[in-house]
Amino acid sequence: MEATELRLNNLVIYEDEIVPVIGMENINKEILVKIDSETAIDSRKLKPIALTAEWFSKLGFKEAYRSQSRIRFDLPNYCRYDFDLNSNKILEGFLFFGNYIKCSYLHQLQNIYFTLTGEELKIEYERPKLQTTLS
Fold first, then answer.
1. Rounded CA separation 34/20 (Å)
2. How far apart are CA 20 and CA 113, in angstroms?
3. Residue 52 burial class via C-beta count within 10 angstroms: exposed 0-12, middle 13-18, buried 19 and up
4. Boundaries of every domain in the chain
5. For the whole model, what pTM was predicted?
6. 27 sits in which H/E element
7. Residue 93 burial (CB count, 10 A)
8. If residue 52 lies in a helix (H) or strand (E), which one and from where to where?
9. One digit per residue, pLDDT tens: the chain, 135 residues?
């Protein structure tokens, strides 16, 4: 995953935790990604989140069709995403006016959705809260 693929509010994985991108800094030709108000990390340490049925549920998509070769998820009144279960993956991706836009990761889908709608893709996901100890 390249830092140029990321935009604000994308969700990514850092050290096995899902974190949002809240900012970016270019320091000496190295791109640091801010994941909270105090932490900026090397973008190469981030991993993308693979799109799965579980993620589509968190995004508000509903399973609309299932066969031996394909699973389709619909975001009601807006768009579709097909998983091609065949090895060639020809019919897989974000379906837009009859064309497939290839995307395998959550940040890619977030970016496509934002580009097409001008709105953030709503995600039913809560970032784990940090535990504090009382002295």
1. 8
2. 17
3. exposed
4. 3-48, 53-117
5. 0.83
6. strand 23-27
7. 22
8. none
9. 888 899 999 999 999 999 999 999 988 888 899 999 889 999 999 999 999 989 998 898 999 999 999 999 998 777 889 988 888 888 888 888 888 889 999 999 999 989 988 889 888 766 554 444 444
The three-state secondary structure class of 110 is helix
Distance, in Å, from the CA atom of 46 to the CA atom of 134, rounded to the nearest integer, reads 32
Report the sign of the C-alpha dihedral through residues 64, 58, 107, 114, in that order.
positive
Q: How many CB atoms lie within 10 A of CB 121?
A: 18
CA dihedral 123, 104, 41, 122 (to 10 degrees): -10
CB 71 within 8 A of CB 93: no
| Cα–Cα distance measured from residue 126 to residue 128, given in angstroms and rounded to the nearest whole number | 6
